[in-house]
Design a protein that fits this description.
Elements: H1 3-26, E1 30-32, E2 35-40, E3 43-50, E4 58-66, H2 71-77, H3 82-86, H4 92-95, E5 104-111, H5 117-138, H6 156-165, H7 169-178, H8 198-209
Antiparallel strand pairs: 1-2, 2-3, 3-4, 4-5
Organism: Clostridium manihotivorum
Protein name: DUF4304 domain-containing protein
């Protein structure tokens, strides 16, 4: 890639960051740390819009969906300092290290018009808005994830956390017994400093509440 192209990409990415801060308000998004985001019920939808060297003729959109409502449960299960965790900024629910993984990630490209770049960004925002609306038809509650919707990645460990959130500890134990070592990695901090996994914490948490 020529130096001129590299500079153009760098300059356009700066424009994206600047313009999204203003355009996001029109589409009921907030913007922070390079993310567009919106909390809708039990879920938070986040998106990154940028231009990448490999696809320099397009806007590259990455869309993530996370059941943020489960984070409090995750923190309780892992014996974290709830007072400290609950005072974190709301963006911590999607960009912090201590939360449940995304249930959906999709990326796609949208061509942009260099002569009308702001309109191209608006088109990207409209597309993100449409996709979120489509997901919301299905994702009206975190409990939907127990029904194994095919478009979303929901491990047995995640299902167990949902059951704990619902105080259904026996069902949570069923899912925990079915989870695998690989699924322990369903959260970013899947092993603490003592080498204890979330799965182990969840087992103990459920057993204590069933006594």
């Amino acid at each position: 890639m020529k130096r001129e192209q590299q500079k153009l990409i760098k300059d356009l990415n700066k424009i994206i960051q600047r313009d999204l801060k203003e355009l996001c308000k029109k589409y009921n998004f907030k913007f922070a740390y390079g993310y567009l985001y919106r909390f809708e019920g039990d879920f938070v939808y986040t998106a990154i819009v940028d231009i990448r060297p490999m696809y320099y003729e397009d806007l590259y959109v990455s869309l993530f969906i996370k059941p943020w409502i489960l984070n409090d449960t995750y923190w309780k299960v892992q014996n974290m300092n709830m007072e400290k965790m609950q005072t974190q900024p709301k963006t911590f629910h999607f960009r912090g290290a201590f939360n449940i993984n995304d249930i959906k990630y999709e990326s796609y490209r949208i061509p942009y018009d260099n002569n009308n770049f702001s309109l191209s960004l608006e088109n990207a925002l409209r597309d993100i808005e449409k996709r979120i609306s489509d997901h919301q038809v299905i994702l009206n509650s975190v409990n939907v994830l127990l029904e194994e919707p095919t478009d979303y990645k929901v491990s047995n460990l995640s299902k167990a956390i949902i059951c704990i959130y619902n105080e259904d500890y026996e069902k949570a134990l069923t899912y925990l017994n079915e989870s695998t070592e690989k699924e322990d990695k369903d959260v970013y901090l899947h092993v603490d400093s003592k080498g204890k996994t979330l799965n182990e914490y969840a087992f103990k948490f459920c057993k204590e509440r069933l006594r």
